[in-house]
Description:
Distance between the termini of chain A: 51 Å
CATH architecture of the largest domain in chain A: Orthogonal Bundle
Helix content of chain A: over 70%
Largest sheet of chain A: none
Strand content of chain A: under 5%
Structural class of chain A: mainly alpha
Oligomer: homodimer
Number of strands of chain A: 0
Number of helices of chain A: 10
CATH topology of the largest domain in chain A: Tetracycline Repressor, domain 2
Shape of chain A: elongated
Radius of gyration of chain A: 20 Å
Number of domains of chain A: 2
Largest interface: A-B, 40 and 40 residues
CATH class of the largest domain in chain A: Mainly Alpha
Amino acid sequence: MTPDPDITRGRKFEQVRRGASAIFLRDGFAGASVDDIARAAQVSKATLYTYFTDKSVMFREVMSASAAELFDPRMNLEPVDLPPDGHFADMLDDVLTWALDPECLRLHRLAIAEAHRFPDCVGNYLRLREACIVQPIRAQIDLWIKQGSIREHDSDRSSRNVAAMLLGNAIPQALLGQVPDEDRIRATARDCAWLFTLVHGIHQDMTA
Amino acid sequence: MTPDPDITRGRKFEQVRRGASAIFLRDGFAGASVDDIARAAQVSKATLYTYFTDKSVMFREVMSASAAELFDPRMNLEPVDLPPDGHFADMLDDVLTWALDPECLRLHRLAIAEAHRFPDCVGNYLRLREACIVQPIRAQIDLWIKQGSIREHDSDRSSRNVAAMLLGNAIPQALLGQVPDEDRIRATARDCAWLFTLVHGIHQDMTA
DNA sequence: GTCTATATACGGATAGAC
DNA sequence: GTCTATCCGTATATAGAC
């Protein structure tokens, strides 16, 4: 929401932004035509150019607005006051399910595709997304450590490792078109939770 | 190397293929212009069109040829007859370093970017890549299981988990422009190896 | 088979009426 | 502020000479 000299807001701003968003997310930056965007926004091309000085400015706005929209609501995912056992798997399930949401995937694909055309945009995106994924996990782990439910350790590292294992297979495959089904998601979440508690839990059973 | 009716091979075929490869990998499908490709290949546009019926055929050829070139030499990475301890971390280091190679990253980015424009191409790519990454890990694990160095378990699952944790953080970040340095790679590889042996090893020390 | 030159369409961006 | 109509460069693809 920082005022951008290249962007003038007006009546149909949201409408335009949504249209642009839809087309960019579908076709990428180079693949998107402003004619298509105008059609999708139900606005004339000239109107587009009253809002944005050119296509690249339009793209930047779409990226930051989409990221803000997608990543903000997740922030209110507070750590829950429950034992690590079953809840952790549920939580990881939620995170993975969220990350596999079509909207989330499209934005991620776009960010990757345009990474070296718009490095600044994408850097910002990466930070926001990272925060949305590993921070909840880390907060939860920290709470459990504080409560003495699990052993003390470097939660920054372990939360990143958990996130990596949780998303490391599913996201690349989903980005390439093979989205895992619910059962597969659940199994992955369980594996992660199991492995985490096995390594960092207090009462681990090595024969399990 | 399957004969494609849309492709006629000739004297400058390789030259053309390399030029197209360079431009597509740099600019994506929609972003690449055939003028640029012709320039990069030091060939006229007309010559391009004697080899490929159109741009999309050119793209498909680039994808499959690049994948074949990048993924084939890795196949001869045989499991080594060593104890899991130090060697596993080294091996994982190799895998991660390879996956972070600029050429490998560019192809991966392209595959993701064009996933829904060329689903067939990308499906093939995904399988080849998967095989290159988790198969060596799995083969190594299987060997150790057979030797009795580590406990018996579902190596298919564990190798995928190891691969996920190994690549899950580094690859997305690298795709978005933030390639980790050697130390970071080494640390990640070590974490993975440590965690794997801790969970599946025979002589684990839980206080470590 | 390979080139130069060109057809044809589509792209981003703008002029000017309202 | 929003539209219709248009400019003009660039894009893909081809014709035809050699």
